[in-house]
Amino acid sequence: MVFPLAPRDVDDRDMRFELQRLISFSAFPQCANVFGLRLAQAGFFYTGLGVTVKCFCCHRNHSDWRTDDDTLFRTGNEMHEPDCAFMLGTDTTNVPMHENGRQ
């Protein structure tokens, strides 16, 4: 007998893969002055809700894209939970697009 699987939550859809996080930004609104690539590299994926992104590791949401000037928003540690393993460099599940600097 085969049991049906419950639908996977967006958090569980392989967002540990940087490439999947980058792909999630294909539908990101252009009104936010941010780069999807930079956010994906910082552990975030687009949730599909407004301009809200979420860390795949600590699950913290971020949607405040105000900047002091016309420069692009800069990602930073304050976007993650203080104990986020990705931010601390102790996460072992992240899969970068280019390992060891190779393309």
From TrEMBL:
<protein>
    <submittedName>
        <fullName>Uncharacterized protein</fullName>
    </submittedName>
</protein>
<dbReference type="InterPro" id="IPR001370">
    <property type="entry name" value="BIR_rpt"/>
</dbReference>
<dbReference type="GO" id="GO:0005737">
    <property type="term" value="C:cytoplasm"/>
</dbReference>
<dbReference type="GO" id="GO:0043027">
    <property type="term" value="F:cysteine-type endopeptidase inhibitor activity involved in apoptotic process"/>
</dbReference>
<dbReference type="GO" id="GO:0061630">
    <property type="term" value="F:ubiquitin protein ligase activity"/>
</dbReference>
<dbReference type="GO" id="GO:0051726">
    <property type="term" value="P:regulation of cell cycle"/>
</dbReference>
<dbReference type="GO" id="GO:0031398">
    <property type="term" value="P:positive regulation of protein ubiquitination"/>
</dbReference>
<dbReference type="InterPro" id="IPR050784">
    <property type="entry name" value="IAP"/>
</dbReference>
<dbReference type="Pfam" id="PF00653">
    <property type="entry name" value="BIR"/>
</dbReference>
<dbReference type="GO" id="GO:0005634">
    <property type="term" value="C:nucleus"/>
</dbReference>
<dbReference type="GO" id="GO:0043066">
    <property type="term" value="P:negative regulation of apoptotic process"/>
</dbReference>
